[in-house]
Amino acid sequence: MPHTVRPPEPADAEAMARVHVDTWEETYRGIMPDELLDAPDLVDRRRQMWTQILAEAAPSKFTCAVAESDGRIVGIAMSGPPETDGSVEDRHLYVLYAYRSVHGTGVGQDLLDAVIDPSVTTALWVADPNPRAQAFYVKNVFVADGTVKTDEYDGVREVRMVRQARGD
């Protein structure tokens, strides 16, 4: 299944929201509360989020990418500034989701490469347990730094992983 990765356009917000919610349902059912995943306004809230982010059009703030296959968006990614001042990273990976049907095709890798510059230290939070995602990040030289939190929004336990800047 060939795919292309490109910067999103404002018109992609609806499809990005659908990928966001669908992949949460595929990956986090049983980890996130059902009430959150089944909320009737979840897709609308994600669409509003993506609409706002894409309207800002400030690449220095957020870098976004979508993966498309057969004219359909099958994956999304977004990096941005560190979560907090004095954080361990220069850049933070906030979003990297792809449909289960495209796992193993290179979509995730291409999305990661599109939104993260290897020359800057990057951090992310990954759900725990989520062995497939954790293995993907380890393959990409991210290391769990021992920091763990429970997300206030969804109650998911998360592990922070950091990739140090590389000077290739």
TrEMBL record:
It comes from the Bacteria. This is GNAT family N-acetyltransferase. Residues 3-166 form the N-acetyltransferase domain. InterPro entries: GNAT_dom. Pfam families: Acetyltransf_1.
